[in-house]
């Protein structure tokens, strides 16, 4: 069972706006440089557990619809675009094939850091289904790709990816077939019709009417929110700008207090 989030991609049309928003809520992005396609660049928010938030946008002069990564998401400024699991070998690709899913890749990719160091990796996608994660395998040392995070007394790392879907049963069945994830369990959470898949980094929500419904109309089913784990929500509030508290089953959570992150990027108490 694939359980560990390597990183998540949060996209928009302007990287400086994403970086400014992250700084305003107490997250510290590091500019990571331009991707090898020349059409996107990114900044990294590393977390103590080794996972990271990737802020990604088109490069200057590139139309978002021409971006090499997730052009529809970047053009629509919808934030969460994709999530990634790390793999050490081809086993994950084989299980996708065995599950009857199309495999796109592996594709060579790279990024030129501002210090001139070239970061290289392979990426593998499972067709064009944005509900599913993609996989990454480093060609260069992972430390080239992910800067070391500053120590944090409360913040730990990426905990949950919330996938918006019009058919929760069908999406749960997809993850059971592909990743052997267990059945979803309904809990009180940040969205209506919200469920977690115990022991996994995945939660599912059905949109109903409103913003999530419009999001699916615009970019399709896929990740709509990312949750970062914190050990002590009260202590986290002393270092991070967080909105009103929300119940997350028997735990506490809050969205980062910025228009770009509200309903898209949150902090959740670790169990």
UniProtKB/TrEMBL annotation:
Pfam families reported for this sequence: Glyoxalase_3
Signal sequence coordinates: none
Superkingdom to which the source organism belongs: Archaea
Protein name from the UniProt record: Glyoxalase-like domain-containing protein
Species classification: Archaea, Methanobacteriati, Methanobacteriota, Stenosarchaea group, Halobacteria
Gene3D superfamilies linked to this entry: 2,3-Dihydroxybiphenyl 1,2-Dioxygenase, domain 1
Annotated Glyoxalase-like domain residues: 5-177
Organism whose genome encodes this protein: Haloferax volcanii (strain ATCC 29605 / DSM 3757 / JCM 8879 / NBRC 14742 / NCIMB 2012 / VKM B-1768 / DS2)
SUPFAM superfamilies reported in the protein's UniProt record: Glyoxalase/Bleomycin resistance protein/Dihydroxybiphenyl dioxygenase
